[in-house]
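ok so I'm stuck.
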Amino acid sequence: MARQSSLSLWLTFPWWFLTLLAAIVYAVGVYGLPNFPIEHPLLAGLASRMPSLAKPLSVALLVLSAGSAVRSMFMRLQRRKLLARQTGIESIRSLSWKKFEQLIGEAYRQQGYLVNENGGSGPDDGIDLTLTRAGKHTLVQCKHWRSNKIGVPIVREHLGVMTAHKADHGMIVSSGEFTAPAISFAVDNGIELIDGAALVKLLSHVRGETPSAKADKPPVPANHSQCPLCKADMVRRVARRGPQAGSTFMGCSTYPACRGTRDIRVA
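replied:
not stuck anymore, here's the structure
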């Protein structure tokens, strides 16, 4: 088991890193150490043997590099299939917590975000995913809850994590629902909440099942914009607390029935 675990660990490294490491090992072992003047007899003997060791080691690293590339390609295909297979909230709720996090990560990866998955490899400090785009970092907490509603304590804890990590944005994605106080607290502090119903709409949009606005359509004035989730009119809101305090955003006029938000666009 230890050997298999060690191999799996090596395959988690990017293929380009393993290829670079193979080149360094070959260059140092074949051309570097053997030609370096060493007076100590024992060290000089080891240096003379380095070419015979460096060559097979660099080949092994190249094999691992190829394996890492294949593994990465396979994982991308698996995540795309996972996204395509979701037919509604019930199929989402039937996923394991790990698959649920992978699904959320793939949904945002398809939207152009660089996604870092914590994957439960260690203490995550309440961070399951980190989304990066245009230099902005969003901390995401995934709550795969099927029955209980998510209350204010979870949202408040996420605000603390955002503050500690100096994140630009925060998001909590759930397969369930949020309580009204949790929604109110999130709106006041600029935290985006996505419940099960909103998640189904998000996945449909990512798969291209909902029409997108034409690229040449003129921008809509902020006070007349439509909710991205339910298409109702939006109203201007101001975050009162948290890292986004004082910032203005548009919130759905049907809140709390709908929690759609969008950045204000200048007409």
